[in-house]
Here is the input.
Amino acid sequence: MATKVIARPIHPPAEFKSAASPAPPPPEPRRSGWFRSREDQAEDAERRLLVGENPASTDGVMAGLQSAGVKSKFVSRMVPCGTDAKTGKPIFMNTLIFESKKPLRGRTKKTAMTKAPLRGESKDDDSGGDDDPEAQLEIPVVMGHGWGSGLGLFYRNFDAVASIPGVRLYAIDWLGMGRSSRCTFPKACFRGLQPSNNCGLNSEEAKKTRTAEAREHDLRQVRRAENFFIDALEKWRESLGLSKMILFGHSLGGYLSTVYSIRHPERVSRLLLCSPVGMPKPPADLDERAMSTWRGRTFRWLWETTTPQSVLRGLGWVGRKMVNKFVWGRWADLEDIEEQELEKIAAYLHTISVLPQSGELASNSILRFGAYARNPLGDRFRAGEVKAPTCFIYGERDWMSPDTATALIRGGQKNVVSCHVVANGGHNMFLDNPVAFNSILRKEILSHFAHAHFLQ
Here is the structure.
């Protein structure tokens, strides 16, 4: 089949972009009627964002040659991660597996590092814990996105990480998000607290009892929601035969990466948390303040009963227009992002957002109104539940505050090793300022090598 080559439009140099000039308006989406996106549309949007207009090559390998996208070679796979609890059907996590550079050599346990096969290669049967002086050291780095997003938004960061010698980079869509299987989310998490019969207790005792019951109920529903993602990630790891990983997570992905390290500490060698949600404790009067105004009551009701994705699903092409406005308003002022890239980002976010409802429901079971965690990560760090060395990365204009992370460092939390702030970056600082962000990310991964036992 002939390949259609589309030349990139010629844009004026960055120095001709005036800060005072208004950003171009988002394009009008084609009005194709009321529809819900299909998996093939999402796959096509992801491919265009990652590798431009070039079609996927044989064996499922995408090559970003002569495009503004990813230059590193990678394989796109659906990796098994269990079965749907309701239907019993197999479920999969969308995964990019990047070709690693020259592996490092050194003496290590055979099970310490793992080489994942590409293009159907069979994995060697390793029984061992014996020392292998000529082991090929490949340290898996796994990148997980945030809520309402997908692995495609890391397209400006993949090359920087994949080019580190000795790193095998994996990028995942969390179960129920992106292009991963949209299986049944445990909706039992949303059952309201049933008040107990406390007629025999005075008002103060009844209040304490109800508070304890509410806390216990919250922790049960949080754990059920966490298990939806954590169990899938563990089965994903088993499917690929990985032994130990560096886990990178953005926003909700940072929260889930931390919880995974708590449940499976032997599988995580380092945590790289990029603006993780759920670090601080919520204000004591959060509910009272929310219920004191009609705006607060309305916003809290919306938080607990619906999601932005459910709104987009019902709006058809109007929903696409809303996503276009969001993307242009967020990133159109950046000098190094062209209009063509913005169109691809908008198409990608819209197509993955209107896929069937699933993992997005975690927003109101793991998080409370106001994006506070029901079981805050800061408390779990202080309690010593997190064992892995941890690095935090925030944006200068981030709506997530680094205060809790810096307080952990000042308080002598030994496993919290650093906290970085990316200049001119917001919550998505990996898109806002990829040069500075990539430099920090590479530095933290290389610092892990400095502490590993290997011979260069």
